[in-house]
Amino acid sequence: MKKAFIIFSAIIFSFQCTHKKDTMKTETKSKPEINPILTDWDTPFGTAPFDKIKSEDYLPAIESGMKEHDLEIKNIVNNKDKPTFSNTIIAFETSGKLLKRASLLFDAVESANTNDVLKATSKKIRPELSSHYDKIKMNKKLFERIDKIYKQKDKLGLSSEDKKLLEETYKIFIRSGINLADKKQERLKKINKRLSELSQQFGDNLLEETNNFELHVTNKNDLGEMPDNFIEAAAIESKKRGHKTGWSFTLQRPSIYPFLDYSTNRNLREKIYKGYTNRANNGNKFDNKKVLEEMVTLRIEKAHILGYDTYSDFILSDNMAQTPDKVYKLLMKVWKPALKTAKYDRELLVKMMKEDGISDKFRASDWRYYVRQIRSKKYSFNEDQTRPYFEVNAVRNGAFTLANKLFGLTFKERKDIAIWHKDQEVFEVLDDTGKHVGIIYMDFFARPSKKGGAWMNELRMQSNIDKFITPIVTNNFNFPAPTKNNPSLLSFSQAQTVFHEFGHGLHGLLSNVKYASLSGTNVPRDFVEFPSQVIENWMSEPQVLKLYAKHYKTGEVIPSEMVKKMNAANGFDVGFRTVEYLAASFLDMDWHSLYEAPKEKTIEFENSSMKKIGLIDEIIPRYRSTYFAHIFSGGYSAGYYSYLWSEILDADAFEAFKETGDVLNPEVAKRYKKLISSGGTKSGMELYKEFRGREPKIEALLKRKGFKY
Ligand SMILES: [Zn+2]
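Output (structure tokens, whole complex):
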């Protein structure tokens, strides 16, 4: 997942800024407390001094940033000179530096290591930021200048990147309702503010509900054949939660998944599964049903004000997919074979359960347990055989080695760069000539202060207006932390996640454009998952596995026989994985393709949405509505389909390497590097066609999925 920005882009972020006003002000006071976010940073590569920044510093820094931004906008508007590309478009692009700096830092820290102060700051500041940007995006005098330039865009002799910046800037205003009557604008501002409050509340509720649940097990027999490292982690969790003995399991994935995979106690499996699937749906103060119902209703109203029938029409018109109809058609194309495959697999699982002597109805909470059984019995494969080859540091080094083979990058650990949590590691990225490229922070382990899932953030975007500003990015995961006796050993899919987020990281790091708002991952949402997903292809290629998948004790490379078995066994559950993903994508589209507010309440709506596509009882959408953070607090509304859209591109792009007989082919790698270095300076389709010589085809994806039907 690529973390969505709360900021509307088009503002450059660089560290050249000196906040003279504040430093001067503080000189006159006795014992001044200088906010470290607002000062110049004398740090390696201008990295943020996280060792000096306190949680309390973010709020005043963001507030100062907004004030400064307001002034800068005022200066553009009041400029007596005729509007030009430079005094208006570039001035707008480079305004709000300080705000951008503070917001990017805050976003990263708040999602990865929150606390009460940061939570309160977020609650206060997000609606204020929403209003701040609305005020700018609906500033008619500012738009008048932009519009004048836009009208002569073909006569100004602009470069293609300048032109793209102009078009994107213009579009921000149009899509924000600049041409609406005042009354409608006022209503839109209110809606946006409320939506940002609700989105914040949705995320906070979800984190609470995830952290509050505990399954405490006292009988070791219930753990079945669970590997020692998980048992040890559960024992530590149990102590942490105040128990003298036993094992505690939580709703965080590194904890619940092993339990569902291994526990022989069906009722306990059902209990934790219900805990997970009913998050924020328990009728308590952290319930998200009313929150999301209000969001859906407000989004419909917003779409209507902006002249669209539905919210998905509004969102998709700015993406590669263009229309809801196109998205539904794509989802359906994959849905049918995926569902058939999942149904076929279900029969195998039911049979396996019967062989276990259980004649009950097969439950959703039985699925993972019997998948593991089948993998182990039919494919003689057990994830525990491969885990020792995917120790977290080995996987990270594998990702680095891949970037070296493809793009000539090297990674040097830096201990002199400040971090915001002790688990973080920082690396300087260098190119093949030893030139500094950027910085990447990596943070692998789960903790209660971190949001779930995995994502990438940008702390500083690449740009090159007056001078080249290098990018700074982060990768965040929720893997089990190493314990005294066990290193952090990853499952295959966790290892894949490392490569995925690293792919987003590379998209940011390799960026080589002029304007920050067109750099790195600032691309349409249904294009942004392409550079991350394409990197996943390499991690299981024998040629690449040899480079990194080495046993943490013996250093032995993963045996090719095991890789064959692993790939066959992983292929087994592709129906389930695709179905749960697609079900969530349909649910997202259904919530956002309404012309009027739904009469049904959340759960009924969800049930009828799933019934419509014929989802089977034993599978639920990957995210149910009350914990679908991607669409209600993560910027992927009417956009969860993006992963599939990007998958078409990534499967087809990887074929380009395979067709040469060398998955690391340097010529293709060079063309691919050009594509990801281009950020959003061209449309996704243009960039793709330059790389591939044609439009993407879906065949490579369907072949890779290997559906049985
Ligand atoms: Zn992603």
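The chain has a mean pLDDT of 93.
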